[in-house]
Write a structure and sequence with these properties.
This protein is an alpha/beta fold. The structure holds iron/sulfur cluster (2 copies). One iron/sulfur cluster (SF4) binds next to loops.
Length: about 425
């Protein structure tokens, strides 16, 4: 950290000793995994800085905004419509759920066989180490998988400000009506929290800010089609992770800036990874900060990740919201239309996701797919079997990996990933 933020963390109620431990682990992981890479684009300096200040400057910005009366809303899922939040000048931050913390305490409240992502949310709260959770004026939970849905009953007892949103499980007209009703309820709640009533101009502005952010990320994705890949999958993942908590306008500018640089790299044929390296599409559960284990294993085994079919990746960022409506209802409908296309594995049946994986494999010239499922994640682990079967039938080599946030299986995963890379070479 470039400045001492101790007083701010204390005021937020963090456990300074535990928090310091977390920062040390984060810093070391970042050093070993990201800074150790060769041929990184210069534009990554900005994202290195953001990461180095993730619990510092960014939190200070949020705290300062709160002093001016602006609100901070925390979320765990890409179904929370950021457009509505931005339209009230509030900030939406994704809450990191990518590391084990305070496991013993967590397992007093949740069964051991709960996915790491849910346990991590509890661990960060119970360990008092997350300044984002502590700064949030409201935390949004969403009834997606059974694990999340039921765990929010316990999470609601740990935080004073949990708002739970229901979500459909089928892409039927009834499902869409449910999503619409929930988004209207959410709009009312956000209006109540912020004291700002939405109008057409405000919602259009919110849509524009979020669409621009998605356009920039889309531009970045397109550049990853080149061989040699102008940016590593790890760095691209980091940008996709920063998407969830940076200031959106500054983030958009920084992504566009790195894209300019990557375009130059492509013109001169220089890359972050040697030309001809095996290209992998990563598909499955979201990779929240600081869960970098599998991408690190893949890229230190000689392959490059060229795309993520994931909520931290294309599942969360593709598709813009139509901003042409001229009434509040039309714009709200456009938001519903956009989010209803998210192909999360909680939907049944879910053929769009399989098609999306196939389309991405072709678009990014991937030689194979690695399907990443968190242990005890029913939606993605169950869907992994038909997805793997269908991809193999279509001639797309696929490796199914189920893991968690511990480092115990690193060697075993490395052996399997290396064998897969040999197969697709
Ligand atoms: S996997 Fe589904 S539930 Fe999880 S963040 Fe993505 S959309 Fe939300
Ligand atoms: S969808 Fe899977 S990874 Fe996501 S919270 Fe539910 S069980 Fe965990």
């Amino acid at each position: 950290m470039t400045e001492s933020y101790e007083q701010m963390w204390k005021d937020l109620g963090l456990d300074l000793v535990a928090h310091d431990m977390l920062l040390q682990v984060l810093g070391k992981g970042y050093q070993d995994i990201f800074l150790a890479q060769k041929s990184r684009p210069q534009g990554m300096d900005y994202f290195n800085f953001v990461l180095s200040e993730v619990h510092g400057l960014r939190i200070k910005e949020l705290v300062d905004a709160k002093k001016e009366g602006k609100k901070v809303i925390g979320s765990f899922c890409v179904f929370v419509p950021e457009e509505i939040v931005r339209a009230t000048d509030a900030t939406l931050v994704g809450l990191c759920t990518g590391a084990d913390f305070a496991t013993e305490e967590v397992e007093k409240l949740l069964p051991r066989n709960t996915c790491s992502l849910i346990k991590s949310a509890f661990g960060f709260k119970l360990g008092k180490v997350c300044p984002y959770i502590e700064s949030a004026d409201m935390i949004v939970g969403e009834n997606t998988c059974d694990g999340k849905k039921k765990s929010y009953e316990a999470f609601g007892r740990l935080v004073p400000n949990l708002y739970v949103m229901d979500l459909p499980q089928m892409k039927s007209p009834e499902g869409k009506s449910l999503l619409k009703a929930e988004y209207y309820k959410f709009k009312d709640r956000v209006e109540q929290l912020t004291g700002i009533t939405l109008d057409v101009a405000r919602l259009k502005k919110g849509i524009e800010i979020v669409n621009n952010k998605r356009r920039a990320i889309y531009r970045l994705s397109q550049l990853r089609k080149a061989d040699p890949a102008p940016i590593s999958g790890l760095d691209a993942l980091l940008i996709n992770q920063v998407f969830f908590y940076d200031d959106p306008i500054r983030f958009t500018q920084s992504v566009n800036k790195i894209c300019d640089e990557l375009e130059e790299r492509i013109k001169t044929g220089s890359g972050a990874i040697p030309k001809g390296s095996p290209r992998i599409l990563l598909s499955g559960c979201p990779m929240a900060v600081p869960n970098w284990k599998l991408p690190w294993i893949i890229e230190t085994s000689g392959a490059v990740i060229v795309g993520e079919e994931s909520c931290v990746g294309e599942r969360g960022t593709r598709n813009l919201t139509d901003d042409t409506g001229s009434t509040l209802d039309q714009l709200m409908d456009a938001i519903v239309d956009r989010y209803f296309q998210v192909d999360c594995a909680i939907f049944t049946p879910n053929p769009d996701r399989l098609q999306h994986v196939k389309d991405m494999t072709a678009a990014y010239n991937a030689n194979g797919v690695i399907h990443y499922g968190l242990q005890f994640c029913q939606p993605y682990q169950m869907e992994a079997m038909p997805v793997e079967g269908a991809l193999e039938d279509a001639g797309i080599p696929t490796l199914r990996i189920d893991t968690d946030y511990s480092m115990e299986d690193v060697e075993q995963l490395k052996t399997r990933v290396e064998a897969f890379i040999e197969r697709i070479k």
